[in-house]
Amino acid sequence: MPTKKDDVYGDHISHKFNDELMELKTEFLKMGGMVESQVENAIQALMDGDGHLAEDIRAKDKRVDQMEMAIDEEATLIIARRQPTARDLRLVISVIKMVADLERVGDEAKKIAKLAIKLSEEGQAPRGYVEVRHISTHVLTMLHDALDAFARLDSEQALRIMKEDKRVDEEYQAAARTLLTFMMEDTRNISRCMSVMWVLRALERVGDHACNIAENVIFMVKGEDVRHTSVEEAERVVGR
Amino acid sequence: MNSMNQSIANEVPSEDESPVPVAESQPTDTVIEEGKTVGKPFSDNAKFSLRDVEVFYGQSRAIKKISLDIARNQVMAFIGPSGCGKSTFLRCLNRMNDSIDICKVKGSLQLDGQDIYDSKRDVVELRARVGMVFQKPNPFPKSIYDNVAYGPRIHGLANRKADLDEIVESSLRKAGLWEEVKDRLEATATGMSGGQQQRLCIARAIAVNPEVVLMDEPCSALDPIATAKVEELIAELSESYTIVIVTHSMQQAARVSHRTAYFHLGHLVEVNETNKVFTSPEHELTESYITGRFG
After folding, report:
1. What CATH number does domain B41-140+193-290 carry, 3.10.580.10, 1.10.530.10, 3.20.20.70, 3.40.50.300?
2. The pLDDT of residue A125
3. Theoretical Cys-Cys bridge with B69: which of A20, A35, B46, B289, CB 3.0 to 4.6 Å?
4. Neighboring chain A residues of B255 at a CB cutoff of 8 Å
């Protein structure tokens, strides 16, 4: 599977060092895949009112947490053993930060699963699920693309994700307004609508984490920190 | 007398340090344009101003049109693979290459705006201003006191014994050695540990009150604790001296220097703030070297 870009971390004099960096990258992507399917399944559990699936997600979150600790440990050992510099250093530092984002995404999936159980127990006709479906598709694509941008060191794709995040925020605001209308129509809807609102909130956070990962990818590739800067600034860095 | 003076300010390199470096095979698929250095090779506050410097060993050109400023009261690190010219270039700064017959230096090399290679320049005075510390500690086979006092005596910096005592003490203090040796100043210097010997050599270099201290791999023969002490010392000295250090330890360059210059096959490839060089270097070759891809 190694692409040409992978050589970027694979041509040290020390083959062991190559292996360590590759392992770090691979484990990170593995954790990314795991977290992606956690979110996917959480939405599925919500849509289908599937309590079993939701329980399964809550159980699997422990494995996500363990992976976070394992990757952090590996990164720490690489720093201790190799004193990485330049792009190697940026990779290790970024992975440490992005792993925290992935773990948070895992937590959001767990939150959604919990709400899925609550909503399925209440067992009424779903409201706002269209919006949930829509935003979940959007943020899952962002998360997937962010991991893909990491794997391929594609800063342009990372930039696109940063721009997408603005749209997710807008969609979230619009969906919140719709839910508010439902709540005003009939006060008996409030409890359910609030639960759906929390799901939307969790999804919006997933988008934020995908965006953080994208920012780290730009840092890895370009060596410049684009957090807390304007999109124009990020464009300048990527266009360099 | 003249030869004595030269030998105090600077020791002749020992046999195992060949004065004519031989370039090792390195990947050369990246073309380096001659005289082109990326990053920020120049400074507004230059102690040394070096322009289009070339060094020849007979027919072979060891340094290829290098232009660089070394800023006052800063630590500048020279890094690069063996045979890249960093030591050769360092030795130009106080005309250490003069002792090698086949070595010719071209270009403009200025210290505080004055030509280093001016034929009228007093080399002994130059080397008193630009001191040097070598890879292997090389104390004289004399007492600790005499090692430090030797330079000031010869340069006539102290007329009375009390003045000399003071110079010896303050130099040893600056070198972080005073507390360890104050009760045995008359003991022979060769009986000290390697780290102490190296700090003694630094004390000896600063006893003549130089403006610049050149260090050619000063820690490569020292253990980690002695290395840490010397690095600590470099940080303190940089407040009052300009320091240029050649090092094979990239981590050391990262720790002690303000600016880092990367040499490759006689070219000066990149000069930047050290923080920049070790997190996101501009040149591909710099990146390859500091991340351990060749070298």
Report:
1. 3.40.50.300
2. 63
3. B46
4. none
